[in-house]
Design a protein that fits this description.
- The chain is globular, with a radius of gyration of 19 Å.
- The chain contains 12 helices and 9 strands.
- By secondary structure, it is α/β, with parallel strands linked by helices.
- It has 2 domains: 192 residues, 2-enoyl-CoA Hydratase, Chain A, domain 1, CATH 3.90.226.10; 47 residues, Lyase 2-enoyl-coa Hydratase, Chain  A, domain 2.
- The protein binds 3-methylmercaptopropionate-CoA (MMPA-CoA) (1HE).
- This is Crotonase/enoyl-CoA hydratase family protein.
């Protein structure tokens, strides 16, 4: 990874997974042009070896979104190029090689929420709050939020956030389908890490099907979606790895499905 860009991110390997830390805490991890390139480089680097990744923020917040200082100077065409680049980079996360889990705390706002929405599983701690203050800044979402955030919470709720400036807490974000887990303050990274390790233990082909087929099927007609599901089902089931895993279960060498003993479901 380019040394000059690594000032914005940290990468730590933890067995089969990698932890990618947004590292511009003095600006609340606000994403500048160079920062977005650092994320792209880090994702490409991590994908080469890790089987799953975690994205988290250093400092008191996950991410304050777009770097507003930088973007007050842009021309309309530069704005489009910038937004399209965010789309490319966040797409590397959403439709890359490995599953990503985001660990969210403090502000998860604007482009920070768009970044989180490009990951496959979101874990919030009790300090996390979510907003889309674009309306107040005179701008619009530009990092994929109109598609990904709207799909998570629904366009009506997203319109409410953007028009009213409403800020929601972690429990509401969970109720709105924005996050899948809410844990105690300071516990999001540990929870996200354990989820990423579980995902890393799956067959890579199954994970790839979840990342690529499941999300695409949502854009298809039911008939087409069911057809693609059958193709993926057959493709994965007949792989040598699946055969070995199925045999392992039947020979009682693999774990059973069991409920985790936590009353809060986290
Ligand atoms: C920033 C940014 C930023 C902080 N760009 N510099 N995002 C927003 O509209 C969110 C704006 N930020 C905030 O509301 C607050 O900063 C936070 C709630 C995130 C954090 O509050 P706090 O009290 O912890 O920190 P702070 O004192 O407000 O900020 C610390 C520094 O970070 C300060 O700079 P300093 O030089 O005065 O120390 C802030 O100016 C700076 N900072 N956020 C630039 N966003 C692809 S389209 C996406 C469109 C969007 O993302 S719009 C939403 C933008």
């Amino acid at each position: 990874m380019d040394e000059a860009l690594s000032e914005f991110v940290t990468i730590e390997e933890d067995g089969p997974i990698a932890l990618l830390g947004l590292n511009r805490p003095s600006k609340r991890n606000a994403i500048s042009d160079r920062f977005v390139e650092a994320i792209a480089d880090a994702v490409a680097h991590v994908e080469k070896t890790a089987k799953a990744g975690v994205i988290f923020g250093h400092g008191p917040h996950f991410c304050a979104g777009l770097d507003l200082a930088e973007h007050s100077e842009k021309s309309p065409i530069e704005g489009i190029y910038g937004s399209r680049r965010w789309h490319e980079v966040f797409r590397m996360i959403e439709r890359g090689r490995i599953p990503w889990v985001s660990a969210l705390h403090g502000a998860v706002v604007g482009g920070g929420l768009e970044l989180a929405a490009s990951t496959h599983i979101r874990v919030a701690d009790a300090s996390a709050f979510f907003a889309l203050p674009e309306g107040q800044r005179g701008i619009f979402v530009g990092g994929g939020g109109a598609v990904r955030v709207a799909r998570l919470m629904g366009a009506a709720r997203m319109s409410d956030l953007m028009l009213s400036g409403r800020v929601i807490d972690a429990k509401t974000a969970e109720r709105w389908n924005v996050v899948q887990y809410v844990v105690g303050e300071g516990e999001a990274l540990a929870k996200a890490t354990s989820i990423a390790k579980a995902a890393a233990g799956n067959a890579p082909l199954s994970n790839y099907a979840v990342i690529h087929a499941l999300s695409r099927i949502q854009d298809m007609s039911s008939e087409d979606g069911l057809f693609v599901e059958s193709l993926m089902a057959s493709f994965t089931q007949t792989s040598p790895e699946a055969k070995e895993r199925l045999r392992a279960f039947l020979e009682k060498r693999a774990g059973k499905v069991a409920l985790e003993k936590r009353s809060d479901g986290a």
